[in-house]
Specification:
The complex is a heterodimer of chains A (502) and B (119).
Chain A (H helix, E strand, L loop, with lengths): L15 H24 L7 H22 L5 E3 L4 E3 L1 H28 L4 H19 L3 H19 L6 H32 L4 H10 L6 H18 L7 H8 L2 H26 L7 H26 L5 H22 L8 H24 L15 H4 L1 H15 L5 H15 L3 H27 L14 H19 L1 H13 L2
Antiparallel strand pairs in A: 1-2
Helix pairs in contact in A: 1-2, 1-4, 2-3, 2-4, 3-4, 3-10, 3-13, 3-18, 3-19, 4-5, 4-10, 5-6, 5-10, 6-8, 6-9, 7-10, 8-10, 9-10, 9-12, 10-12, 10-13, 11-12, 11-17, 12-13, 12-16, 12-17, 13-15, 13-16, 13-18, 13-19, 15-17, 15-18, 16-17, 16-18, 18-19
Chain B lengths: L3 H24 L6 H4 L19 H17 L1 H12 L4 H22 L7
Helix pairs in contact in B: 4-5
Chain lengths: 502, 119
């Protein structure tokens, strides 16, 4: 034993602020463990209790995080994690997305005969991984949290075990995701070599102290980390996995991936991005470098995502490509964040708006999906307005929101995002974004045309009655979409507060 | 100079090992058969197509073994150092109790799922 080992007493205690900041994580973890035990207890029929415990875990965790939103920043675990408004803001998003996913899934799983307790456990574990990711300040912690999230989602994507598409999607996602994780880890190793730390704040301090520019090793490490995240958010050179995975995954899980996963990856990406490449006080050389990379990715993502979405006839696949396109818009916001008055708040607001409308859209798809996820092609939506008028109305709201038409959340978020890009003098990017956005209206409205102007298909299978849970999800998302669209100031103020705490 | 004994040991080890191999080869009786001449590998035929199928249960056992084995590795550094920290507070002990608790829940789950039964 080395005699010079120092015992740091401050690491052996939790102050009451720290314990409070950790309470959502501990609560979610405790709830998950309880649900896990319940799912294998023979005395009770595990379906309903596991579902209820899981949903309550997520909802109460959400309320606790909401309560902590206004609290001051607290450093946790030797600065490896931080509890700030930004982390709590995203905790609310993740837990809400997990709870809504589970609510939308219950009926769907019955129909698919997949009603296993593990489904809910994996959703909760994925949500816990996202929470840890958004509050992590250390690249190693980010990696572990990312793996916790990704591994859970790999399993969920392949949850329809009897379906070949689901298996293929899970395998593709697993192999490509593992490769991306390896790239991220390699970048972390290089950053550690260049800066002697894996802590984001230490890396930031190191970069700020390098007035003459940084070494090649640092640049390469930062690139690799950024590539790892570009993969997770499915930006264009690294998007190939996404359509297949989105199509093969069970529909509610696809919704979970577009909302939770994307928000988690972006939340962490922004945190890393502004401290290692694009934040205050960093050398101009490295900033312009990162700027150019992200601009190229953003333009490619918007153009390719929208162009390919035009030709899709399967709705899940179309929404997957539209998700790629939306990634491009958010990247524009990230580029603009530094130079605009609102900072990164429009990015955060866009993530919330996007999560809300996608959660709703995929909940509608989960209701409409026939057995084995069939019946999600464009022609299956013909005449939906006469067969299920309320679902058709809700779907129209979500699609109009994605297209960015007022008075929906998509419009408010897009307006603020593009406005911040104008302020940052990225006029060229804004022109491309608006043109792409105009293209996207075509494929969103095509669904509306099918729903309202076409007659139902001959011999279309009768629709099942809508379950209470799923209807509640869809209705609340419609309300939230319109609420953010008409009164975005409240959400924007919250987003601003979250970003200020970074 | 302080490494000279190591060098002597290495020389003796090589000489002794070599001598035993050579002597048994020269002096020993030889009754070869095909089974005897094949390399030994856990009772399985060592040569053949690598793509032959075997039970998926091996994977499960391997994963569970790896999981519980790696988790047990954390006990060793804890056991070596925890006395020094007891002087401050019980944090280390409590943390290990939580860790073991999580391990037990996982074990309970695996047991109930029947992953430890071969048939």
């Amino acid at each position: 034993m080395d005699a010079s080992t120092t015992i740091r007493a401050d690491l052996l205690t939790l102050t009451s602020e720290q314990a409070m900041m950790l309470s959502p994580y501990l609560w979610v973890f405790g709830g998950t463990v309880l649900a896990m035990i319940l799912s294998v207890t023979r005395a009770i029929q595990p379906r309903l209790p596991v579902f209820i415990v899981s949903v309550l875990t997520a909802l109460v965790g959400m309320v606790v995080s909401l309560g902590l939103f206004a609290a001051d920043r607290v450093m946790l675990f030797n600065n490896m994690m931080v509890g700030d408004s930004y982390a709590n803001f995203f905790n609310v998003v993740f837990l809400a997305s997990a709870a809504l996913t589970m609510l939308a899934s219950f009926e769907y799983l019955d129909q698919e005969r997949l009603q296993y307790g593990e489904y809910y456990l994996l959703v909760l574990f994925a949500a816990l991984g996202m929470m840890l990711m958004a509050s992590a300040l250390d690249l190693i912690v980010i990696f572990i949290a990312l793996e916790l999230m990704s591994l859970s989602v790999y399993v969920l994507v392949g949850f329809r075990r009897a379906d070949r598409r689901s298996n293929e999607a899970a395998m593709k996602y697993f192999i490509l995701g593992a490769a991306a994780s390896a790239i991220l880890l390699y970048g972390t190793a290089l950053l550690y070599g260049a800066t002697q730390s894996t802590n984001i704040r230490d890396i930031q301090a190191f970069v700020q102290s390098q007035s003459g520019g940084v070494s090649i090793m640092f640049t390469l490490g930062a690139w690799l980390v950024i590539v790892g995240f570009l993969f997770k958010i499915a930006s264009v050179p690294f998007h190939m996995w996404m359509p297949d995975v989105y199509e093969g995954a069970p529909t509610p899980i696809t919704g979970f991936m577009t909302t939770g996963l994307k928000a988690a990856a972006f939340a962490t990406f922004v945190r890393i991005f502004i401290s290692t490449g694009y934040g205050d006080g960093l050398p101009a050389a490295i900033q312009s470098h990162m700027h150019d990379i992200i601009v190229v990715c953003a333009v490619l993502t918007m153009v390719i995502g929208n162009a390919v979405a035009l030709t899709q006839t399967n709705l899940k696949r179309m929404l997957a490509y539209s998700s790629i396109a939306h990634t491009g818009y958010i990247l524009v916001g990230m580029i603009a964040g530094q130079g605009s008055e609102q900072g990164y708040a429009p990015v955060v607001l866009y993530l919330v708006a996007y999560a809300v409308m996608n959660m709703g859209a995929f909940a509608v798809l989960a209701i409409l999906a026939a057995r084995a996820d069939q019946g999600l092609n464009l022609r299956d939506f013909s005449g939906l307005s006469s067969r299920q008028p309320w679902l058709a109305f809700a779907m129209s709201v979500f699609l109009l929101s994605m297209a960015g038409i007022p008075p929906t959340a998509g419009f408010a978020a897009k307006y603020l995002l593009f406005y911040s890009a104008v302020q940052a003098h990225e006029i060229g990017l804004v022109v491309i974004s608006v043109l792409c956005s105009a293209i996207s209206v075509y494929y969103y409205l095509r669904v509306l045309v099918h729903m309202y102007m076409h007659e139902p298909e001959e011999g279309a299978a009768p629709l099942r009655p809508v379950s209470v849970w799923a209807a509640a999800v869809v209705a609340s998302m419609v309300v939230l979409t319109v609420q953010i669209g008409t009164l975005p100031a409240g959400m924007l103020a919250a987003a601003k507060r979250a970003v200020m705490s970074l | 100079m302080s490494y000279l004994p190591v060098l002597i040991l290495v020389v003796i080890a090589i000489a002794l090992g070599g001598a035993i191999q050579i002597l048994s080869h020269v002096l020993g009786p030889k009754f070869p058969n095909p089974m005897k001449n094949s390399p030994f590998e856990c009772g399985m035929p060592p040569l053949g197509d690598a793509r032959h199928r075997f039970s998926v249960r091996f994977y499960l056992v391997a994963i569970l073994f790896l999981l519980f084995d790696v988790e047990a590795v954390f006990f060793f550094p804890f056991a070596v150092t925890f006395r020094e920290y007891l002087g401050i507070n019980m944090f280390m002990v409590l943390e290990m109790a939580v860790f073991v608790g999580i391990l037990l829940v996982g074990y309970f789950y695996v047991l109930r799922k029947g992953a430890l039964e071969w048939d």
